[in-house]
Amino acid sequence: MSVLSPYRVLDLATERGLLCGQLLGDMGADVIKVEPPGGSSARSIGPFFNDQPHPDRSLYWWAYNRSKRSITLDLEREQGRDIFRRLAARADFLIESDNPGYLAERGLAFPDLSAINPRLIYASITAFGQDGPKASYADSDLIIMAAGGPLILAGDENRPPVRLSVPQAYLHACADTAVAMLAANHERVRTGLGQYIDVAAQQSVGMATQSYILAAALGSSEARRMAGGIKFGPLDIQLVWPAKDGYVAMTMLFGSALGVFTRRFMHYLCEQGFCDEATRDKDWIQYGEMLFDGSEPISEFERIKEIARTFTRSHTKDELLQLSVERGLLITPVTTIDEVVESTQLESRNYFQNVEHPELGASFRYPGPFVKFGATPIEYRRRPPTVGEHNREIYEAELGFSPREVSELKQKGII
Fold first, then answer.
1. Which of 388, 313, 367 is nearest to 64 (CA)?
2. Residue 220 has what DSSP assignment?
3. pTM: predicted TM-score of the whole model, two decimal places
4. Do 73 and 29 contact (CB within 8 A), yes or no?
5. 49 with 57: CB under 8 angstroms?
């Protein structure tokens, strides 16, 4: 028995919301991916296995559709919508990510389906939410990350901000949606009723700005972007430092919480001959205040940063990590993809999982479960489904259509 077994999820999500269904599926829910005949548009997103474009070879599709079953169904036609209402009558959750109003125009909005199944929990994932002046705006990851705040900190200080190479906004929204659906399920246990959940990706990514989105409005110095760090007032705070064999992330900041680590670091640099005692003995707790009030010139901070760079550049990432552990410093390696794949930490936790793809006669290493449950561990029960792979299984065995009727639906293009 898995955590969410035997709950059933109808997944209508476009490429915006696929991760949400996978999270619920990994936890044991029976997730039925409802795709238009021919397959979801997300199947056309590359890269593709062996560089062969095909609906069942999209690595994007594989990444977000594990632990689901797939049926095809044309919701543009009334017969298809009637079949979908039969599915909704016996479902526990529904996820969709179309533009606001799209499903309402087809009689498949929350009020329509709740009238059939009052227990249904129905979640919509969109860029700006279901209402407000921007509800119908076009969107992209770049737009949402800018509207939500994080983008302003990405990129070089002397150039416009840049997008992250892997879209992030809807992934945040999907995780928030999954949490909200489980909370709504808890409420349903008490009342017996489902409810509607409206998730705006703009608001989800707002939480990814840490406190910066609020701090400036409350009088703090505004954080600004800088390559390998962040600009804070007049200070260039370097967060990524060169190592002999790559880069490390190192926090060299001040104040009562972080200044103690900087003090330890400077004592070690002095022991190793990288700086003199006067540099070592600066007040690293109050150092930020000294820079802001001008009692310590910015040029002196830049001199100290160069000392730190010289030190990190003379050591490997492993050496710096070991030093961090031994001395209680805030240094950690910036790993490459190969290092992540070969990570002994991830290997010890059996993170990567081999998933069989019988249709290709091969197995592939997938990233592991997002969480480890002590009593009901996540198992990858299903590889991402091929287009309409479970049509007969669901239409015949669960909805009671005869094989002839299913064949007719296929001939008509309904499924």
1. 367
2. P
3. 0.85
4. no
5. yes
